[in-house]
Amino acid sequence: MKKIKLLSVCALTAMLLSACGAPATTPAASETKQTSTAEKASTEKVEKADVEEAEEVPAEVTVNKAEFDEIKNGMSYKQIVKIIGGEGEVLSESGSEGEEYHTVMYMYNGDGSIGANANFMFQSGKLLSKSQMGLK
């Protein structure tokens, strides 16, 4: 997903820069470069690889109300990942892994109304608190 966003930003930037530049001119016939068959084949392979890579992006992991209710304080992050089916997004982190008060907050988008989500705060590797909004 990050690669797709990066490619989109690069393409948009290139379009904006070309629109802001000097007037377009067409090269003289002697300056026109012929694209070889090998170059075309190479370009097609790269484009095909990009498409295949984009198709391998996993679906977004979401949490529903039943999964949220199954999760209890004291559980490990691995237990929660197993219940929900994937990892959440780190919203904040303080301390270092292995320290007594290492604290991490994860966010999951939720199944339900627009903006539905759930947050889970871990301290020392155990669920300390959880919250949700709009889960169904």
Topology:
Blueprint: H1 2-20, H2 37-55, E1 62-63, H3 65-70, H4 77-84, E2 89-94, E3 103-110, E4 112-123, E5 126-135
Parallel strand pairs: 1-3
Antiparallel strand pairs: 2-3, 3-4, 4-5
Describe the structure concisely for a colleague.
With 136 residues, the protein is an alpha+beta fold. It is 38% helix and 28% strand.
Walkthrough of the structure:
The protein is of the alpha+beta class and 136 residues long. It is built from 4 helices and 5 strands; from the N terminus they run ααβααββββ. Strands 1, 2, 3, 4 and 5 form a 5-stranded mixed β-sheet that branches. A hairpin with an 8-residue loop joins strand 2 and strand 3. The chain is globular and about 35 Å long. The two termini are 26 Å apart.
- Detail the poorly predicted runs: 1-17, 22-26
> How many H/I helices?
4
Shape: globular
Number of strands: 5
- The Rg value, from CA coordinates, equals 24 Å
**Global structural class:** alpha+beta
Give the biggest sheet. Answer: 5 strands, mixed
Helix content: 25-40%
Tell me the span between the first and last alpha carbons. 26 Å
Strand percentage: 25-35%
Summarize the helix and strand pattern as letters.
Answer: HHEHHEEEE
Overall mean pLDDT score?
A: 77
Task: Provide keyphrases for this structure.
single chain; five-stranded mixed beta sheet; 136 residues; alpha+beta; disordered N terminus
